[in-house]
């Protein structure tokens, strides 16, 4: 582990030195000045969802992720002035050097390099039938490489709001970070002025595609799948925060950036905004405010001081989206319900109202106790004070337990007919749960010994107990599987390159 940590630290040194080296080049290319961190209308909302939401700075919207404004790249012209031509040439030279980056052991980084001709062939000249979405970076196409591998290819819009800096960050980050809940970067193209990123293809699209504006023939996600996605996405953040050294702050956690593979396996994507976190005795990093309105932590939006707890807040918003089926920002709703967090916070104060927060698309098919615990985790994550939010490792423990408790609505209904209140199983903590406790919003009250005899005034005082309880169950679950995990090797450990 010591050797792995040292190698990882050396790799992060590559990111810092490479970004510093090319920062001046990018600034010369981006002739227009920065527009600042003003909040401007998005004109239709993130993710193409018609929310009318806003981002911090102007943002493009797409099913693959909306982002805020970056320093603008000048519009294309037939001939650049001599100074700009020279800067562009240096930028291309910097991109060439990217292919020569090596890790601490001298091994070439894992991402492949592609020519523009190869990717043109893979997408059949970027035909419309291969088009699958558009984001702040540019258009995304489905393609097939020469070897038959199906990939997603993102092409930088040179007249858009992102440029070389985001491209470099994405290539460097995903070349060094490897985890089962992070999307895999297959390679990139920096051929002339072309900038393209090649990823593994995620056949089920984004989480946003399965939560919002569903067509009539599309089934909503069931409770088990939602908890599985939440736990997997949390594990991706845990890797960035706790396993990478120095830690990485994702800074763009939202439902459109969680891509889904087979069996709804979630992976975080779009790392152009990622920042290296504080090290040593530093408590935060100061940076220009970037992020999507509705997901941005309040202290970061106000001060520009970024910590891993900023990501935890964004995770809490996405967890609320999963539970409620609502968008983070939805201008089509009544005034008091347009901001998801603002709508949810008062409801946390009355436990009797918690079942009303569940997504109507679930049609009552969820475990009542699981709903309370998931809402308790979300409530802790969206605390206004960063210090009051849990560490992502604690969130992973709680949600891993909830995801392991498979809810079967058919079995629940059958048990009601057979006798309803029979005791069904014993949890890992030794407490007995009832069948009725696993039912959805049926109105039946639980008579468990560890439940209050009458509803408390809210979960503000109760949520810490519920989170602690879920963490304890999760810890017991981890203890049982530790031997097997040790035998197979931890998938959460940093990958040695070469």
Automatic annotation (TrEMBL):
It catalyses: L-seryl-[protein] + ATP = O-phospho-L-seryl-[protein] + ADP + H(+); L-threonyl-[protein] + ATP = O-phospho-L-threonyl-[protein] + ADP + H(+). Belongs to the protein kinase superfamily. Ser/Thr protein kinase family. ATP binds at residue 154. Residues 418-453 have a biased composition (Basic and acidic residues). Keywords: ATP-binding, Cell membrane, Kinase, Lipoprotein, Membrane, Nucleotide-binding, Phosphoprotein, Serine/threonine-protein kinase, Transferase. It is a lipid-anchor. Residues 126-402 form the Protein kinase domain. It is an enzyme of class 2 (transferase). Its EC number is 2.7.11.1. GO terms for molecular function: ATP binding; protein serine/threonine kinase activity. This is non-specific serine/threonine protein kinase. It comes from Triticum turgidum subsp. durum (Durum wheat). The lineage of its organism: Eukaryota, Viridiplantae, Streptophyta, Embryophyta, Tracheophyta. Residues 42-53 have a biased composition (Gly residues). It is found in: Cell membrane. Residues 33-73, 415-474, 479-498 are annotated as: Disordered. Residues 487-498 have a biased composition (Polar residues). InterPro entries: Kinase-like_dom_sf, Prot_kinase_dom, Protein_kinase_ATP_BS, Ser-Thr/Tyr_kinase_cat_dom, Ser/Thr_kinase_AS. Residues 54-65 have a biased composition (Low complexity). Coiled coil: none annotated. One of its GO terms (biological process) is innate immune response. It comes from the Eukaryota. GO terms for cellular component: plasma membrane. It holds the Pfam family PK_Tyr_Ser-Thr.
